[in-house]
Amino acid sequence: MAEALLSPILEQLTTIVAQQVQEEVNLVGGVKKQVDKLKNNLLAIQSVLEDADRKQVKDKALRDWVDKLKDVCYDMDDVLDEWSTAILRWKMEEAEENTPSRKKIRCSFLGSPFFCLNQVVQRRDIALKIKEVCEKVDDIAKERAMYGFELYRATDELQRITSTSLVDESSVIGRDDKREAVVSKLLGESIQEAGDVEVISLVGMGGIGKTTLAQLAFNDDEVTAHFEKKIWVCVSDPFDEVRIGKAILEQLEGRAPDLVELQSLLQRVSESIKGERFLLVLDDVWTENHRQWEQLKPSLTGCARGSRILVTTRKHSVATMMGTGHVINLEKLSDEVCRSIFNHVAFQQRSKDERERLTDTGDKIANKCKGLPLAAKVLGGLMQSKRTREEWERVFCSELWGLDEVDRDQVERGIFLPLLLSYYDLPSMVRRCFLYCAMFPKDYEMRKYELVKMWIAQGYLKETSGGDMEAVGEQYFQVLAARSFFQDFKTYDREDVRFKMHDIVHDFAQYMTKNECLTVDVNNLREATVETSIERVRHLSMMLSKETYFPVSIHKAKGLRSLFIDARDPWLGAALPDVFKQLTCIRSLNLSMSLIKEIPNEVGKLIHLRHLNLADCYKLESLPEIMCDLCKLQSLDVTTCRSLWELPKAIGKLIKLRHLRICGSIVAFMPKGIERITCLRTLDWFAVCGGGEDESKAANLRELKNLNHIGGSLRVYNLRGGLEGARDAAEAQLKNKKRLRCLQLYFDFDRENDILIEALQPPSDLEYLTISRYGGLDFPNWMMTLTRLQELTLDYYVNLKVLPPLGRLPNLESLELRGLKVRRLDVGFIGIKSVNEREIARVTAFPKLKKLWVLNLKEVEEWDGIERRSVGEEDANTTSISIMPQLRQLTIRNCPLLRALPDYVLASPLQEMVISICPILRKRYGKEEMGENWQKICHIPYISI
């Protein structure tokens, strides 16, 4: 009956579809010609775009033309990406329609026509957009002849850099007297009354070296020993009392405060420094508003006599406003000192012949630094890759040196010119990567791995033959670092490199990306969003406080490609649906550390989205299934989402995903289908399902089999013994994951773990290994094949009696033994079978070990030493044994039965020894206990017993 009624409707639909398809063919056929024409126009424009890019700095009309060209190129990219996304979705839908399970439940008389009609409508819509963009490009191309461009062929080849190491910020030349003056003022007798704090100001122009000098004083050994508390805060503009208060409190207490009200923050700051002698550095202060400083200042009283505040600023008026007791003025450096800084960077690892051949030209270039150390570093970084005298002369004679006379009002004289020279010397793709950083707030601490993923999301990195865009991003990063575009490098947890941009470099990047990159905060919100240029913004950062709601005017930025929202208030969740509906071109979205509880279904409209950062959203409880339709998504970060208990079940549909970071969430299992994401590069977490109702939805270890691109770190939880678990582990083939550097295996204490651990053999190049809660009796056979292993942690081996010969691992630098049941650390652990057999070969055990932690070995009683043979004996069979020759740090905690330390440990070059909850060792080695062996350790610089 139903089929009889629907039959006429189906016939009518089929007729409509056929007509639409014919119209589409005609339309697309015409568009193909337009696309070909567009490509030709773009090629013609690109051939002179390098020249246009240089000329736009001093030609406003040309700058407007280049901006229009960029806008239309963005539009074209969006349309083509929409087209490729639609094709990818159609293919995936067609593949799902053809699976046996879907065939059984599919409505055969409705599925096909509607599916086809949907495709026709989408194709027609995209074809019309392409035609519209082609017409825009045609109009812009006609204007090209007006500007008389010269052919300037671009190159994307990176020139070889002579040194891969980053410039050492601590090597400050020509400031020894100023450094001594700062340290002297910090350590000198206080002129203030007890409970008050003295202010010292470093004053000088941008790029003169104020921050570097303050860093040197801050890290000085005498200064560190003198002050009980040290705090460093980047202030910049605007002077945000709440942010400054949070930064001070975080460093005092070691964690981010949960307070948002200024008075509550300042009250706790006051309590934390009461009676303490502290040093507070306020770097890069701009405000001259006395009222703002007076709000903050009372919280810094009540401290111990001798406390100091060190301020860096460009303005004498700021130093006066803050009640400075002593001003240290930083003047420009002499030409001679600038040449020394320039040479230090430019001539790294060059031969004597090269130095002699290039020094005279180098001196002339260095003389253009005008006394600014940042300029010397930038120019030195530029010249690192120049090999011939002709290349050096070309830089010296560049027409850009005359720009200060042409565009004096727009470009900061002195420092922008070296930056321009270095910038234009970069390949075009590297330039784009640098300019992208203008979207971040000033003094923002960027993370390298995050920035590279954002570059990938914007399409700035070309895929290599091996498909490794990340390696290209790493190379670009190193080039920018060598040019001093990045600075203040810090490394956390092996792969986490963080850095900043100098404020002058940031100003330069923002100058070059006017109307493209925008940073909005509470102070400039209204001014920034009412301007019509908001419609042209492509990359936006918003730093909003609790009192500031999401500005609806941002919805005008229809072409927005990057959005970073820093807002610690629940109202953001209510604003997101409209944001996603309006700003559909977003490719990179960062909502990290926000208080949202869910991602709205409107996220499905972000069809271009490549990068989604939700890290540290500790209230986030769920991710919508519609996210799995974002088929272009390349990176998803939900680390430390402490309320997130499940990932979308269809996550396997994200076949373009390259990076999935989960650690720190409470996700119970990995959904089935992860095996489909074969281009995955990062998978930092995998939990084996523990059974129950989730087992039917959970992936098992064998789904890792074809994910051979995953690298970096991988943690595997809930490992269980038995034949089935071992078979799954063997299928995972971890040994084929050649990019994997860190592996952490967490078992369930099962005695049957022996066969399982053998099946979990990692790649031979592994550098970091943790094995925890292992219940087996023996170590895996593959343990001693890891010849590149640098760090090893053995954690709670409940049934283990004997350690393997770890001393034979040639590259081991760090060893942690935690909660083991062993009663003896014997010579087998060192890797020596017997010390009394004269046939033993010459041996060095633990040749590179620097750090050794022995924790919670509650049953260990003996730590065997080695009988040392006389080195002077002229016996062919005499053995020379060296054990732990590089050991620097030893920590022994909660080993109550351990009687003594072996001689080879006491003879090592230890710099730090910490012994706690070890009563026998304390009695034996403690100074206060008059221990019999105190003299054996008293030479160690730092001892805590």
Automatic annotation (TrEMBL):
GO terms for molecular function: ADP binding; ATP binding. It holds the Pfam family WHD_DRP. Residues 189-351 form the NB-ARC domain. Residues 6-98 form the Disease resistance N-terminal domain. GO terms for biological process: defense response to other organism. SUPFAM superfamilies: L domain-like, P-loop containing nucleoside triphosphate hydrolases. Residues 701-819 form the R13L1/DRL21-like LRR repeat region domain. Residues 439-509 form the Disease resistance protein winged helix domain. Keywords: ATP-binding, Leucine-rich repeat, Nucleotide-binding, Plant defense, Repeat. This is Disease resistance protein RGA3. It comes from Populus trichocarpa.
